[in-house]
Every structure is written in structure tokens, then in C-alpha cells.
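Quick start: read one record
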Amino acid sequence: MRFRDEYWFLSNFYPSEVTLDGITYQTAEAAFQAQKCANPDDRLLFSEETSGRKAKLLGRKVMLRPDWDEARIDEMRRVIHAKFSDPRLAGMLAATDGEIVEDNHWHDTFWGRCDGTGENWLGRILMEERDWLRAGRTP
């Protein structure tokens, strides 16, 4: 599935406030990119960014925290959980069926799949969150 049209809300670029560690971001992408920062004060730069695309570009310019490769999956889990704490979005996610796959054409085979190949970590995390929501529990 592509995160467009009826599934646009699954995209980290979808406009939705996400609050992590007392900072509110305008998209899940901005919240995620902010978690990369070696200097926690730099996270505030992302709170002002309303475009997921611009947040992603900004994330390529920050000094990465030293444990980023090990921490990124858990940080995405935190971001997704914060995003879907919004009852409207939570209901939309809970109503999805089947496997959630972030199909893409930009060759991101870590967070999604391209041409059927990839680890699909974003999709896996979304399905975990959906399972928690349906069970009425929090991760």
C-alpha cells in the first residue's frame, strides 16, 4: 500500500501534532528527525518545521547522536505511539486490515519496501501499534 489517499494518515509526513519529551512537532517526520540530534537542544529546530519533507532534509544536516543506528527503531516506536495517541488517528489505524507495507519508489528498504524488497520497519511498527490499540493497551 502506498501511504496516499485513504492511507495518507499513515505517512510520517501527514500533518499531525506529535509531542515527545515536552516538544510538540507538526509531523511525525519532524519528531523522528529531531531524535537524531546529538545535542538535545537542537530538537527545537524541528518543532518549527511544518513540512515533513523539509524536516527530513534538515535531519540530514544534524550531528547524529552516537547510538543512532541502535536507537532508531525504538525512537520510531515512540514517535508512532505519540502520533496515534490522537483518538481520531488511533481509530483510523485500528480500522485498517491486513499487512501495512510502506511501498515506495525511492529505494527505502529499511523503513519500507521497494519492488517487493525491504525490511518494512515502519509498517511493522504501525502494525504493532494497531495491535496495541485493538487490545486496548499501551505498549
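The mean pLDDT is 93.
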